[in-house]
Write a structure and sequence with these properties.
The chain is mostly helical. The chain has one domain. Helix 1 runs antiparallel to helix 2. The longest helix is centred in the N-terminal third of the chain and has 25 residues. The two termini are 17 Å apart.
Length: 62
């Protein structure tokens, strides 16, 4: 798969995560919002260590 396609999918997953986080916070479901933040931080730390794309690195490695 081309890296540009994976990069676009990575940006799309960031947008979906931000939307879900704001939606859950608006509904008052703070526990789910905190869980989403923790998952996002784990994915982001994986992204910073590997230097390529978000979340798809984990999918490929598993």
């Amino acid at each position: 798969m081309d890296y540009s396609v994976l990069r676009i999918l990575g940006y799309f997953s960031i947008a979906v995560t931000i939307f879900l986080l704001s939606y859950l916070a608006f509904r008052g479901d703070l526990e789910a919002a905190k869980l989403l933040v923790y998952i996002g931080l784990i994915l982001l730390s994986n992204e910073l260590l590997s230097g390529i794309l978000l979340s798809f690195n984990i999918v490929v490695r598993v």
